[in-house]
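Subject: design request, 326 residues
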């Protein structure tokens, strides 16, 4: 039992990291990229290049980076999506997608960078996340004289902005533009399908992040955005935190028609049974209709290039009649 609880807590920490939930940035920082920065990126085509990162820092990139270190799983996915796998020389212990990332040298853990390893890898660009590089850690990285770009995409729009920024600083603007266009097209295709639904018809959805204590996805989580883009109604949309604790009774009262949860290492069958056996939950519509689904946690919590795919996957779960089997 203790091992199970410990593993669950570990998974929860990874979910929090993946979604970028942290209070480490200044309170007046709004996140995302400012309009003037967007104009700067659009007009930039040569190096040296100066951009503004999530913390409002002016980061100068003197030349096209050839040795890049990523200090967050979401960053790693974005860099690989830009076709930079040969230029990535270091990642974190938890960068597991695409599979090729597992073979890269490890330059950081969940909570801290490996400074000696970073120095030995001699990067000309370090792409970090605001969760990892707080206060003293950021100062240490800056002291290494490598350009450090701190990112914090919190949703689909911010992912597109970050792709544009990464495309500029890595010399891959055309590739970034192509990825953004593809994501937007896939999302638009889902919205077009959803137009076939009767007005106001949206399935009620409960996403379980963690079982003990019971935690779900609130309105400021990327999971909430994915559910909405897929045509679902998050039953805890009124809770303005990323991963709020809720009571079993609240779930029963809000009566979800679909229950989703993060499937970890083949836990799908076991967790389905755990949910089904909860006292009082047999009255929930999702259980009566057997609409309980385990999902890839990384795909649905990392603000990265797979978000459009996540929206497509959920839309097909919610409304299979709109995507009939061939």
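Subject: RE: design request

Done. Sequence follows.
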């Amino acid at each position: 039992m203790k091992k199970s609880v410990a593993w669950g807590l570990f998974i929860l920490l990874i979910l929090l990291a993946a979604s970028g939930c942290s209070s480490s940035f200044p309170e007046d920082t709004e996140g995302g990229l400012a309009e003037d920065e967007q104009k700067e990126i659009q007009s930039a085509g040569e190096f040296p290049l100066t951009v503004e990162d999530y913390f409002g820092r002016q980061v100068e990139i003197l030349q096209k980076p050839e040795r890049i270190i990523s200090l967050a799983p979401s960053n790693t996915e974005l860099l690989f999506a830009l076709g930079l796998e040969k230029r990535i020389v270091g990642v974190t212990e938890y960068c597991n997608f695409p599979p090729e990332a597992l073979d890269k040298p490890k330059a950081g853990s969940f909570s801290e960078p490996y400074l000696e390893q970073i120095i030995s890898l001699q990067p000309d660009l370090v792409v970090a996340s605001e969760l990892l590089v707080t206060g003293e850690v950021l100062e240490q990285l800056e002291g290494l004289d490598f350009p450090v770009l701190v990112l914090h995409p919190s949703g689909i729009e911010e992912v597109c902005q970050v792709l544009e920024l990464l495309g500029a600083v890595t010399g891959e603007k055309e590739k970034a533009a192509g990825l953004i266009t593809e994501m937007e097209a896939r999302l638009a295709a889902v919205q077009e399908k959803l137009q076939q639904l009767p007005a106001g018809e949206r399935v009620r959805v409960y996403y379980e992040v963690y079982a003990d204590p019971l935690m779900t996805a609130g309105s400021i989580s990327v999971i909430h955005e994915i559910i909405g883009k897929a045509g679902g109604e998050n039953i805890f949309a009124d809770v303005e935190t990323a991963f709020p604790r809720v009571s079993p009774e609240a779930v029963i009262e809000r009566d979800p028609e679909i229950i989703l949860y993060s499937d970890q290492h083949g836990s799908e069958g076991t967790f389905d049974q755990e949910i089904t056996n909860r006292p009082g939950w047999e009255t929930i519509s999702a259980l009566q209709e057997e609409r309980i689904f385990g999902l890839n946690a990384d795909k649905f919590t990392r603000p990265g290039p797979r978000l459009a795919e996540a929206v497509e996957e959920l839309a097909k779960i919610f409304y299979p009649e709109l995507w009939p089997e061939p």
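DSSP finds 13 helices and twelve strands in the chain.
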